[in-house]
Design goal:
This protein has 284 residues and is mainly α. The chain has 13 helices and no strands. Helix 6 packs parallel to helix 7.
């Protein structure tokens, strides 16, 4: 049957009685999820709901990024590069969504934000433990960050655990070594609690793979997927910085940082420096 009077008939087999069945709402705990937006401005400002939802959805996506990157690392630990790259591919799509979200927050004008910003106190995205967890899993570790999360034992424990575990990048080199590639000891035995820094010893292996990619396609693909991860992360950081600049200019951040200046410094941080450096060496 077609649509009549611009109304679609409900098919007879569609379930409508949920008195003893799981519903969409109960499965997703929508009563909890949709009651978690609690504006603090008084009187309540219209645009604060946007601000809250923007950051809550970001945290939900970050939760999935952590889930997928840890799964990718676990796959590399058993040399299952295919599963690892499937997880990475999903993360890349999440990153694109997170980056596009900044365009929604950018509709918040300086005048609108200023009317409820003071109510936020010192709360700041700098205090997102899930964002720090993603950085730690990817190798950009900073033990000093743990102090921020001492009042939250669960967050502090998660970050402390990730601090002392190998990063996704570390797991890649360990896997390649087990597969017979000449991964240097300096990459395999490094202090995993330290922020990853450029390792010249890796360049011969990486250059070899790029120059012989047909015979080493899986590893070559892994390198390129990791480069995508880094590039997407940097695009997110850049959009963050530009959105903050557009909204508050050069004001200090609510958490006490210098604001835009602090965010600009983040663009100098890196996860997989050798995979970018090889681009200079190839074809010389």
């Amino acid at each position: 049957m077609g649509v009549e009077a611009n109304t679609r008939a409900i098919e007879k087999n569609v379930v409508t009685d949920f008195s003893d069945r799981m519903s969409y709402s109960s499965y997703l705990d929508l009563d909890i999820l949709l009651s978690a937006q609690k504006p603090v401005s008084r009187p309540e400002h219209h645009d604060e709901l946007l601000f809250i939802i923007q950051h809550q959805t970001t945290e939900l996506w970050l939760k999935l990024v952590i889930h997928e990157t840890l799964a990718a690392r676990a796959a590399l630990d058993v040399d299952d590069i295919g599963t690892a790259l499937k997880c990475v591919a999903r993360v890349k799509h999440i990153q694109k969504t997170l980056t596009e979200q900044w365009s929604v927050l950018a509709t918040l004008t300086p005048t609108e934000y200023s009317q409820f910003r003071d109510f936020l106190g010192n709360s700041s995205g700098f205090q997102s433990y899930q964002y720090r967890a993603v950085e730690f899993v990817l190798g950009n570790k900073n033990a000093g960050m743990l102090k921020v999360f001492e009042p939250d034992p669960a967050a502090h424990e998660q970050l402390s655990t990730l601090l002392h575990e190998p990063s996704l990048y570390d797991a890649l080199w360990q896997s390649l070594a087990r597969q017979g590639y000449d991964a240097p000891a300096s990459a395999l035995d490094r202090d995993v609690t330290a922020a990853y820094t450029f390792n010249e010893d890796l360049m011969p292996l990486i250059t070899f793979v790029y120059e012989n990619h047909t015979e080493h396609w899986a590893v070559y693909e892994a390198f390129e997927e990791f480069v995508d991860l880094e590039e997407n992360f940097q695009l997110w950081r850049f959009r963050h910085m530009r959105t903050v600049l557009r909204t508050i200019g050069m004001k200090s951040g609510t958490g006490g940082s210098s604001g835009v200046g602090f965010l600009q410094k983040a663009l100098e941080l890196t996860f997989f420096p050798e995979l970018l450096a090889v681009r200079t060496d190839i074809g010389r």
